[in-house]
Give the backbone structure.
Amino acid sequence: MGINHIAIIMDGNGRWAQQRNRPRTFGHQAGVKSVRQVIEGSVKAGVSHLTLFAFSSENWNRPEEEVSRLMDLFVKSIDKETPELNAKGVQLNFIGDLSQFSDVLQHKMRQARANRPVQTRMTLNIAVNYGGQWDIVQAARSAAVQMLSDGLSPSDLDQKWYQQHLCLSDQPPVDVLIRTGGEHRISNFLLWQSAYAEIFFEDILWPDFDQAALQSVIERFAHRERRFGQTSEQVNA
Ligand code: IPE
Ligand code: IPE
Ligand code: MG
């Protein structure tokens, strides 16, 4: 069974740094290496879509210093990584409410998105200032606007039509949802898009996650039985 879409909640940077008596930001920096590893590993595994949770809509509530260091890290990483990613056939995309970011960062994100590889092997979505609840509300707003302009009534609204207004509507649903760092929660990530994802809560902290750790998840996924509401007998018929 192939995997079209992997989504990852990259958690545990702060604890990784604290274990080393270093500031939390040191952990965020170390996490960039793991991002490279999962991109590499996903491309190798033939995964066509990878979505990484880099900054949640709730992460603004962190100390100002940490937020500002994270923003610097985003700017630097986009500058440094985009050309190499494009050369590898990775198309970058950003999802979330980008309007809250500085003009410089917004510009860089748009530019990175506009750079298209010659041949796309994988789409990489970076979720920044993203929240699953925000996504559902922005989709509702966009759907309402279209309903008014097209003269549609509430009874015309169905799941398939509504879904077109959500982030990643042009991409396959999440098959594998990974959260590192040992917490067993979704933290407002892709709520709609993960409706039938196989979930993997991994104890490993994000800066320690590498290609082997990804491969281990992919192997365990192969042993899961996805039933989509059916019985096991039906699935195996
Ligand atoms: C995840 O790691 C990275 C971001 C939320 C930006 P954390 O910073 O949440 O690390 P822990 O959970 O405190 O260890
Ligand atoms: C989730 O991690 C967000 C990202 C990984 C970007 P958090 O560390 O912010 O999640 P909570 O607050 O512990 O649920
Ligand atoms: Mg955390």
